[in-house]
Amino acid sequence: MNTLSITNLSKTYNNGVKALDNVSLNIQNGLFGLLGPNGAGKSSLMRTIATLQNPDAGSVYLNDINILEQPHQLRENLGYLPQEFGLYPNIPAEVLLNHFAVLKGISDKKKRKERVEYLLDQTNLYQHRKKKLGGFSGGMKQRFGIAQALLTNPKLIIVDEPTAGLDPTERNRFHNVLSELGEQAIVILSTHFVDDVKELCTNMAIMNEGKVLWSGAPEKAISNIEGKVWQKQISRDQIEGYKTEYMVIAEQLFRGKPLVYVYAEDDPGTGFLPVQTDLNHVYFSAIQR
Ligand code: ADP
After folding, report:
1. CA-to-CA distance for 17 and 10, rounded, in angstroms?
2. Does the pLDDT value for residue 85 go beyond 70?
3. Is the CB of 46 under 6 A from ligand 1?
């Protein structure tokens, strides 16, 4: 079992933006979802854990590695899949993965070949191994990214915004690869898609404006707000009034008319109906509050 301990991490950029505000989290093997809107500070946190940038204050430990003081040891145990990574379009997948393995210091040719073939198989790319990366779909590129991140058996895997731009089939396949990884390592997945977290993660944190608003198991988060989310269909010209009177956490159209969701400890009356709560309500109520 691995443990990542993040304690009181803060970071203010030169332009004055406080991207991390006293962030503390404890994360163990399995899939951990870091959920938050754009600008919440997710990438800043991921880059700090990946030792690509330094915080102003705080500490991060992977097991007994103090990652700020021992970045090399951390990197030996890290697989990092950034949002976008450059690929060489004219090189076949197998050749490029072998090349990355050389760069990562797997010098024994036979072992390297075995590792490359194993990872191509694990990421469902074996049948495409002779294809050039330029011809890969978005999902295949993502899975290739995972394969390269896994070359050295990392204890910690960081995946930034993994499913943006994937079609449902690709997304499913990618999810399967990720969930297998969670059995042996800490996998942190940053995303603004609630469904990614709902489908995959055993633990999660919700971030906004550099702060952790909530962390724990998704089902605990859902049970915390059970019976506190209400819905009502209203007319368009009522929306603004409802927003001042109630804590509206979401609105959507239903058969062309606005449906508002409000957070309230008790029945707000006036025609509101209770809603079966899900992770979307957790997310939007955390962000609104
Ligand atoms: P997220 O990944 O959740 O979208 P980021 O960590 O990328 O959030 O950004 C958090 C905040 O910090 C945003 O307001 C963003 O504009 C700002 N920010 C991110 N990187 C930098 C940087 N290198 N310099 C200045 N501001 C930055």
Report:
1. 11
2. no
3. no
